[in-house]
Amino acid sequence: MTDKPGYRRPQAGTQPEYLHPPYQSTNLRSPSKPLVFLPHSLSEITGPTIGADRIEEQDNDLTAQHSGEPLGERIIIHGRVLDENGLPVPGILVEIWQANAAGRYAHARDLHDAPLDPNFTGTGRTVTDADGWYQFQTIKPGAYPWGNHHNAWRPAHIHFSLFGPSILTRLVTQMYFPGDPLLAYDPIYNCVPDTSAKERLIASFDLEKTIPSYALGYRWDIVLRGREATPMEK
Amino acid sequence: MTLNATTSHTVGPYYHIGLTWLNREDLTVAQTLGERVAITGQVVDGNGDFVNDAMLEVWQANAAGKYDHPEDDQDKPLDPNFEGFGRVPVDAEGRFRFTTIKPGTVEGLKGTTQAPHLVVLVFARGLVKHLLTRIYFDGEPANVADPLLECVPAERRGTLLAKQDAAGVYQWNVILQGTDAETVFFDY
């Protein structure tokens, strides 16, 4: 039987190295030995299919999960999930989580001295539609301090987790907001050298998506790995 | 059109907020076909300290060696009672434990046969990109001809083998960094 095509390997500089010393938690958690090259077999070009049957309709509205409205600037985030070949990726799970407007996570381990919001959990999920589009309604998260170095602050961000058609398209990343002065100082945002790769993590303001007198719109497209045209010889 | 995949970033320490809803520590239901196996272990860092904010995701074939996925066109039966995916948390001491079935052998590249194995993704604060490794089963005869194990330096292969303890539970640790026993991770 002819082998099926695998997935494209990352363009240099667009994906992080495991050891990134400015982000201190990488120092003891990054492998020290060489990675072993993995040819893409059936075990890698397959993966879990977690679809709309596990999602409730309101799961993509983080402002409607409690009896009252959360505090903060109401926003709509939407965008398209494409693969590296430019094709939309329909029907895949997108999970998000984030801090509240004050920069505090509803998490027992977050000890930042900022108020919790009883009307905000910060959890959302959805499935991309037939053309790869997703959408969330939420509030803009606040920046928050962390212990990485003196006076370290994370820029406002939303965590995204995506599956895609195979285990190789699994992606966990973070979305940022335009014009944030903290981006320049953030060792996580700056974990890759490629400037355009970094800038693609920043959503753009979307006036057309903005709902008058209600919520600001942002657009953020996400790209998952794409298949090779032919099986890889290695 | 050629695009580049979006840059990966760490799940951070608070991923539970968004991800634990999908946790599954038992991949089977009563009707699932195959030999039940329990796999347990601990995630530890380069100092040997446990990692209490890691998470594993597991992907595997069913007992017949068939993946529940459209790309798998092997002539083998699907098991309607087995999906093959699990999201497995760690506890306050970095320990995980999950129950599944031992998968069958799976077709490999170039006409080879892959020994029973699980694909494992490791997520944690400090992992800017998730790690990918595999669990094989110690003592499994098919291991000797597995095409991927052959690519792993012989002295490191043991890190991919889950070993049964006296109670029959498979023990397998994730050593993120270490001079001797560091787990083999793959460039995927």
From TrEMBL, chain A:
Q: Which InterPro entries match?
A: Intradiol_dOase_C, Intradiol_RC_Dioxygenase, PCDO_beta_N, Protocat_dOase_b
According to the entry, every stretch annotated as the Intradiol ring-cleavage dioxygenases domain falls at 77-105
According to its UniProt record, this protein's enzyme class is: oxidoreductase
Look up keyword Oxidoreductase and say if it applies.
yes
The EC number of this protein is: 1.13.11.3
The protein's UniProt keywords, in alphabetical order, are: Oxidoreductase
Highest taxon listed in the record's lineage: Bacteria
Stretches the record annotates as Disordered: 1-26
Any GO MF annotation of the entry: protocatechuate 3,4-dioxygenase activity
- What protein is this chain from? Protocatechuate 3,4-dioxygenase subunit beta
Automatic annotation (TrEMBL), chain B:
| Keyword Oxidoreductase attached | yes
Keyword annotations for this protein? Dioxygenase, Oxidoreductase
Positions in coiled-coil regions? none
Under CDD domains, the record lists: 3_4-PCD_alpha
GO molecular-function terms, A-Z: protocatechuate 3,4-dioxygenase activity
The cross-references to InterPro entries, in alphabetical order and at most eight, read: Intradiol_dOase_C, Intradiol_dOase_core, Intradiol_RC_Dioxygenase, Protocat_dOase_a
Q: What is its EC number?
A: 1.13.11.3
PROSITE patterns hit by this protein: INTRADIOL_DIOXYGENAS
Q: Where is the Intradiol ring-cleavage dioxygenases domain?
A: 39-67
Q: Which family does it belong to?
A: Belongs to the intradiol ring-cleavage dioxygenase family.
> What is this protein's name?
Protocatechuate 3,4-dioxygenase subunit alpha
